Each structure stands twice: as C-alpha cells, then as structure tokens.
Amino acid sequence: MPFVIPCCKYTKNSKYLRLKPYLFVNFATIRLKSHTFSCFLLQPRRHLLLWRHCREVMQADAGRDNMCGGQETKTEYRMKFRKLFLAIGLAAVCTTVSAQSSFEVKLYSGQPPYTNGDSRDTAKVRVFLPMEKEATGRAVVICPGGAYETLSMEKEGYDWGEFFQNQGIAAIVLKYRMPHGNPDVPVSDAEQAMRLVRINAASWKISRNDIGIMGFSAGGHLAATIATRSLGEAKPNFQILFYPVISMLEGYGHDRSRTNFLGQHPGKRDEKKYSADMNVSRVTPRAFIALSDDDDTVPPANGVNYYSELYRNDVRASLHVYPGGGHGWGSKIGFRYHEEMMMDLKAWLKSF
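The chain above was modelled as a monomer; its predicted structure follows.
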C-alpha cells in the first residue's frame, strides 16, 4: 500500500515540497472524519527515500541560512525536523484508496491431514486482491522462508503481497506449519493453498489456469517441491524462486533446512524424493529464479542446477544471478540490485 505524506500545512513555496518527483505515484485528496487534506501517494517502500531527501533539504537550507548570516539556532532546526518527522509518522496510519486491504482465511475448516505435534501451529493465508478494474486474473501463492523453523512473513511475504497487488496480480501469502521432521505437513499446507485459490477463483476474479507459486530460501524449496511433484488442482502454472534451497542431499543444500524438513537421519529415498532438481520433467511449470553469487547460506549451485534441469527438460526458465547481496534480501530496498531484480521480475511476468 502506498505511503501517504500530507502537505496541506505547507505553502506553495514551502521548502518541504521540493521533493524528488520519482518518489510519487500521484497527487490526491483524502477525507478523514471532518478533515480534508491533500497528500502525495508514495510508491511502496519509498518512504525511507523520502525521509532521507527531506533531511538533505533541511540540512542544505540550514547551511544556506548560515552562509547568508541567518540566525537559525540548533534548537530551531531540531524543532523543524521534529515537525517534519511527526508529519511523516502520522501519515503512516492513513489508508489510501489505491489498493484494497488484505484479509485472512483459515487453510482448513477442520483438522489438517497431517500433524507436527504442535496444536498451536496453525496454517492460514492472507489474501491480497488487486482493484477489480486493474486485475489481470493472475494469482500467486507465496511461501516465505526461514529454514523450516520460522517464517519471514514481512520481507518474504506481506511486502510481496502488496507488490503483486499493485501489479494487478492476486497474492496469497501462506503461513504454513513447520515440519518438525514430517515433510507432509508443509507440503500438504502448500497444496491446500493452491486448491483454496482455485476453489475461490470465481469470487476472487482469478483465472484457474494462471496460478503460480513463489518461495524464498526454504520456502523456495517448498515451492519447487509443489512445482515438481504436485498434481491436479494443487499443481501451479508457474514458479518464482528466490535464493532457493533445492537439494535435500547432505552437503548440497542447507543443512538446517534439511534436518528440520526430513528429521535427523533421513533415508536416501526421502532425500531424492524432496530434491527438486531430481524431479523435474517436461510438465514442470516455467520458472523465474533469482539469487546472488556470494550467497554463503544456501549454495548458489542449488538454483543453478535446478535451472540446468529445467533447460534439459525443455521447460522455459529465466535465471538471474546477481553479483552480490548474499542471502535473504527479499523485499529489502537496501539490496544493491533491488531495482534491477524488480525490473527483471516484472519483465518476466509480462512475457506470458
């Protein structure tokens, strides 16, 4: 959802309005209770850039005042800065009409088919639907990462829900249960999420034949497992994998994810069964794979080998290896290649 910064307090010539135009989507008027005020709608995740720029503007103006013999004191400068900070902070609670809000749905109406022994660990999805007039009919189920022991729900989940929502794509962020050595638990949750989207396709304005799955790190392993092994209503039409764990063979993937997923002493059969690169076929859905070549958490060979198997089986795939960034960058705008990565993903999504 876009970030909102009110500007009604400032005059037309106010120095606080001298902001870089690329930060904004458009200009709008918001009515909140008995007050009406004008505001700028910022692009998602751009409020930090706005904050830095406002600070630079004020520092430059303070320096200019001193050069011209101005008498602005340090206390007065701090008061200005605090007022600006308050305006930005208060704006964060405002809601705009540029995107619909999300809602949560339980994954199961009764008992789930498999258990991990923790009754408090429940599966659910948060659904982000685009504005009806902007909807493309496409949807994606998102699986956050966390080594199969926790979930990075914000930067590998909800942030991406908002991103896809603004692209006209429905996003379904999955909070799947931890396996605790039983791989059927998260796999069944991901398959149920795919079925749930198809069940609600008509009411959510989604095409049943344009539903993908996306995953990060261990969530990428879960997504790739669904893409290569699931059938029928649970099978996705495309897959998006960010720095994914692919192999469950000892020493090839991510040891902690492997242990949490398969248990302490998995058999060779399960290792191969859940190594996605060993299960690629000609009916595996097309893929977008992104990773950094300096990832020292999940070996980059995981994503590269998976791409090679897709290529060998004539599956359309796009591999993007960035020169740096490490592991776990998700939606972080601090990732050096964030803008390039976003452009690559948008271009790929428009290619089919």
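Residues 6 and 87 are 7 Å apart (CA to CA).
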